[in-house]
Design brief:
Layout: E1 8-16, H1 17-24, E2 43-47, H2 50-62, E3 73-81, E4 85-87, H3 91-111, H4 126-141, E5 149-154, E6 171-176, E7 182-187
Parallel strand pairs: 4-5
Antiparallel strand pairs: 1-2, 1-3, 2-6, 3-7, 5-6
Length: 196
């Protein structure tokens, strides 16, 4: 964990227009607590990528199995103070996750339960979520300060050209655990939502 990176980032949250209007009027963001959440439980944002936030809202609209009710996809921006950040692109962050994984294995063996699994679709990350939630529990039990934000880079989608190392939907995602880390919400200008 560290506070070595820049203190503030801009994050983008894909949602229905009605939700965006409420957030812009001062409503609180709703925490996600799905067992498959990539970065554990919290409020999810796409870092520096409003277009990907809008694409995600459109994907939710077209996914008939999604619990999200989106009729008019949109995206809302937020200024986020990283605070105490578990950055999964840093060596320190990766080491913390390794420790939590070992601890989760010990717990599962002692309690005789099967570890959650990540699914081959690359989207449902039940094991990753359980490991990150275990890290939060370890910190609580040790009396350490809570993590404010979890940040990770994800390679998603197919290659952008044959044999490319770059993927169509690669992104940095932020999971805000401490709602007070969201310092302001703003409407995203339409010009920021085009590929040009």
């Amino acid at each position: 964990m560290h506070t070595l990176a820049s203190s503030f980032v801009l994050g983008y949250h894909g949602c229905d227009e009605s939700i965006a209007d409420k957030l812009l009027a001062g409503a609180d963001f709703k925490e996600s607590t799905n067992a498959y959440d990539w970065l554990g439980h919290g409020i999810y944002f796409w870092e520096a990528n409003p277009l990907r936030g809008l694409e995600f809202a459109n994907e939710l609209k077209s996914n008939k199995r999604s619990a999200a009710r989106i009729s008019k996809p949109t995206v809302v921006g937020a200024a986020i103070d990283l605070g105490l950040c578990l950055d999964l692109s840093s060596s320190a962050g990766i080491e913390q996750i390794k420790i939590a994984h070992r601890r989760l294995i010990q717990i599962s063996e002692k309690a005789d339960f099967e570890l959650p699994k990540n699914y081959s679709d690359g989207l449902r990350r039940n094991l990753d979520c359980a490991v990150i939630e275990t890290l939060h529990q370890i910190r609580r039990e040790a009396g350490e300060p809570p993590i404010d934000v979890v940040r990770g880079v994800f390679l998603e989608g197919g290659p952008i050209y044959p044999s490319a190392g770059f993927c169509e939907k690669t992104h940095t995602q932020i999971c805000v655990r401490t709602p007070e880390s969201i310092k302001g919400v703003f409407r995203v200008p339409k010009r920021h939502l085009s590929r040009a």
